[in-house]
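Lab notes, practical 5.
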Amino acid sequence: IKHQVASAWLAHAEGKHEEALSLMRAAAELDDAIEKHPVTPGALLPAREQLGELLLELKQPVAALQEFETSLRSAPNRFIGLYGAARAAKQGSDRKRAKNYYGKLIALCRLADSVRPEIKEAEEFLANVNVKLSANRQN
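Output from the prediction step:
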């Protein structure tokens, strides 16, 4: 799986985007098919999340969101999965889902002792959405 993922990113870097997508989809399907032991930690970066990232790179946010959501069904509350889903929803102009995922990301990190850039981005997005909602209510 790791080899397929690396090959996919290499193909992407070389401008072979269809090949990259094909390789990454195959890696994601294989990763999904492998039975995970309940005690063993999951992959640091599952192939399905990397497929989502690749789709974002290729400016396909709707497809990316679908991949992140698929990943989140089997591995809920993963920081990278939530962040990827939020960005994909935002880029795909799905404010409702972006707000949902950014909100979950902030909730996940509410007890953290430092602020990551991803959390700042989430807070800024949510503040902006709330300002727009407030302005719309006044009109």
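Observations recorded by the TA: The first helix runs from residue 2 to 13. DSSP finds seven helices and no strands in the chain.
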